[in-house]
Amino acid sequence: MTTEVRVPTLGESVTEATVATWFKKPGDSVDVDEMLCELETDKVTVEVPSPVEGVLEDIVAQEGDTVGVDALLANIAPAGEAGSTTVEERPSATKPEAKPSSDDATPVDVMVPTLGESVTEATVSTWFKKVGDAVQQDEMLCELETDKVSVEVPAPASGVLTEILAEEGATVEAGGKLAVMSGGAGAAASAPAESKAPAEAPASSGGKDVEDAPSAKKAMAEAGLDPKQVTGTGKDGRIMKEDVSAAISAAKSAPAPAAAPAQAQRAPSPAEDAAREERVKMTRLRQTIARRLKDAQNTAAMLTTYNEVDMTEVMALRNQYKDLFEKKHGVRLGFMSFFTKACCHALKEVPEVNAEIDGTDVVYKNFVHMGIAAGTPQGLVVPVLRDVDAKSFAEIEAEIAEKGKRARDGKLSMAEMQGGTFTISNGGVYGSLMSSPILNPPQSGILGMHKIQDRPMVINGEIKIRPMMYLALSYDHRIVDGKGAVTFLVRVKEALEDPRRLLMDL
């Protein structure tokens, strides 16, 4: 009896994956739990083990194919029986089937999938199909946006999209109905003939009949790019999100056209200005960021205190040991580990900066889960490094590098961005000289780092040029008094100007 190998559950809010690599080929013997293939999602890589011992009879989803949850990947025959199963006996996404009558076309509901923990509603962002279009099972129908992630909705079966119940911009609840399909092979076969036109004649998208990645379509729409301007590197020329990013970068680096001769211009009218404007609906993620930041201002009695730190000793220590540090630990020594350690040192002395308000209670944290704010193309995210007070410089640097990369790639899970007790925001990487960071609720403190700039300083009665950095501590005055905030910032300054204090716990 043939055993089917199907796509496993891919994780919260993940509905499809790409077949990255097959480790076996048809005819190979496989053992139970031996790795058959590897799938890639936008968050994780998933290995698919063999459910039984036997022989890999055929592969249904080839490398580069996009597959949905529970889609058929391959078939395994018992040892000694490979090849004995006929095509008619084995279910396959690509096998020929007898054409049923039109009576076999049964309605199939397209439902809103599980949206994730604590997420109850979403907004319909984009429909990739319209009423009357023929669709294949697991082909993307639409994309939903929540305040945390984007969710792509695949077709539950092959057929024809007969009705769309939630138009673009509509808000839908988890488990709600999005559309209705006329399911079954008969329905798919009875689709209008014009749905096959792209395969017979050059299409407006450049003559290819390959569906571009939904995330790539969205990125092209946001950037105002025509698909003809983007070279697809996916299977059969499919445009991927990375291709759009590359096209945008190439456009920015292209030489600017020669300036036209100056001409006298009249002031445009308000109507003409309006015609040149572009109105784009905020993503759910951006709406959430805006709401949370405004809630922080409305809820907390937020105040900011400033100081400056002489980075001479930290920079000298880093320059002296960075090569040896990287050789031993396999990670570069940066400034963030010094600031993280200095904050942990100061939080021990001023624990209210590491606490939070819960109703009429103050909750003191006897640990430090440090949030490291990071700017990404999707928006501001704050991955959390847990128990950093018990970690070494090397462990902190390695975790910052790893989480920072996955944040930029959009592969952080929600669990990795929750539970922080204090946050560091480094605006200096963008050139910021001074700013007032906003609290990350329910935390009571956030440290803002800024640009290191050479400035003249009076040292022992002499003017010397020193690398200086402004520090800003925003805190909730409901729980942290001015004395505590200033003391915290002074302890951070002392630890950075004399790093030996960290070693001796002074």
Automatic annotation (TrEMBL):
PROSITE patterns: BIOTINYL_LIPOYL, PSBD. Keywords: Acyltransferase, Lipoyl, Transferase, Tricarboxylic acid cycle. Residues 2-77, 107-182 form the Lipoyl-binding domain. It catalyses: N(6)-[(R)-dihydrolipoyl]-L-lysyl-[protein] + succinyl-CoA = N(6)-[(R)-S(8)-succinyldihydrolipoyl]-L-lysyl-[protein] + CoA. GO terms for cellular component: cytosol; oxoglutarate dehydrogenase complex. It is an enzyme of class 2 (transferase). Residues 87-102 have a biased composition (Basic and acidic residues). Residues 80-108, 191-238, 250-278 are annotated as: Disordered. Residues 211-248 form the Peripheral subunit-binding (PSBD) domain. The keyword Oxidoreductase does not apply. Its cofactor is (R)-lipoate. SUPFAM superfamilies: CoA-dependent acyltransferases, Peripheral subunit-binding domain of 2-oxo acid dehydrogenase complex, Single hybrid motif. GO terms for biological process: L-lysine catabolic process to acetyl-CoA via saccharopine; tricarboxylic acid cycle. Gene3D superfamilies: 2.40.50.100, Chloramphenicol acetyltransferase-like domain (3.30.559.10), E3-binding domain (4.10.320.10). Pathway: Amino-acid degradation; L-lysine degradation via saccharopine pathway; glutaryl-CoA from L-lysine: step 6/6. CDD domains: lipoyl_domain. Forms a 24-polypeptide structural core with octahedral symmetry. Part of the 2-oxoglutarate dehydrogenase (OGDH) complex composed of E1 (2-oxoglutarate dehydrogenase), E2 (dihydrolipoamide succinyltransferase) and E3 (dihydrolipoamide dehydrogenase); the complex contains multiple copies of the three enzymatic components (E1, E2 and E3). Belongs to the 2-oxoacid dehydrogenase family. E2 component of the 2-oxoglutarate dehydrogenase (OGDH) complex which catalyzes the second step in the conversion of 2-oxoglutarate to succinyl-CoA and CO(2). This is Dihydrolipoyllysine-residue succinyltransferase component of 2-oxoglutarate dehydrogenase complex. It comes from Salipiger abyssi.
